[in-house]
Amino acid sequence: MTLVEWIADLDALPAGSAIEILDKRGSIRRKDAAGNWTDAAKPAGTTWNTWTYVNTRRYGARVIERNEAVTSLPEGIRALIDEYRALETERSGHLDRFRNEDGDVRAADLPRYDEARFDNALFAEENLSNLLSALEELTPAS
C-alpha cells in the first residue's frame, strides 16, 4: 500500500491511478482522468482537484490502483515524439509561408500553395509510416 500525503505525490502518480482518501467518514475514492481527479459517483465531466488535494494533505490517501502501463513505456518513446513533433512543425511551416498576416493564402500563391499541400500530405504519410515502424521496433511483441 502506498501512502500519499503531499500534493506533489499526487501529481507524481501516473495517469489513470486511483486513490482512497483516509478520512474517518468512510471510503472516498478519486481517479485521475487526463490530469483531473474525478469521482465515479458524480456527474461525468466534473472534477474534484481542489477537494482531492486539500483532503489528501489533511488526511492522507492510499493508492489503490496505479496505472503501470503509463510508467512502463519502452525507452525511446519520448525521443520519437520529439522527433516527429519537429517534423510536423517544419511541415506546417512550409505551408505558413504562403499565408499573409491575416492567415489567408494570397490569391497569386494558390497554385503553389496547393502543390505544397499535396507534397506535405505525401511527407506526412511517409512520416506516419516511419513512426509506426519505429514504434513497432520499440514495443515488445504480444
What are the SSEs and their pairings?
Elements: E1 2-4, H1 7-12, E2 18-21, E3 28-33, E4 36-38, H2 49-59, E5 61-65, H3 68-71, H4 77-96, H5 110-138
Antiparallel strand pairs: 1-5, 2-3, 2-5, 3-4
Helix pairs in contact: 4-5
Describe the structure.
- The protein has 142 residues and is an alpha+beta fold.
- It is 49% helix and 15% strand.
- The chain has 5 helices and 5 strands; from the N terminus they run E-H-E-E-E-H-E-H-H-H.
- It has helices at residues 7-12, 49-59, 68-71, 77-96, 110-138, and strands at 2-4, 18-21, 28-33, 36-38, 61-65.
- The chain has a 5-stranded antiparallel sheet with strand order 1-5-2-3-4.
- Strand 2 (18-21) and strand 3 (28-33) form a beta hairpin.
- Helix 4 (77-96) packs antiparallel against helix 5.
- The longest helix is centred in the C-terminal third of the chain and has 29 residues, at 110-138.
- 10% of the residues are buried.
- The model has no long low-confidence stretch (mean pLDDT 83).
Quick tags:
142 residues; elongated; alpha+beta; 5-stranded antiparallel beta sheet; single chain
Report the principal-axis shape: elongated
- Give the number of helices: 5
**Biggest pleated sheet:** 5 strands, antiparallel
Segments where pLDDT lies below 50 for 5+ residues?
none
Strand order of the largest sheet: 1-5-2-3-4
* Radius of gyration, taken over Cα atoms and rounded to an integer in Å: 23 Å
Count of individual beta strands: 5
Task: Please trace the helix and strand order, writing H or E for each element.
Answer: EHEEEHEHHH
Q: What is the terminal separation in angstroms?
A: 29 Å
Averaged pLDDT: 83
Pairing-aware structural class of the strands and helices? alpha+beta
Strand content: 5-15%
Helical fraction equals: 40-55%
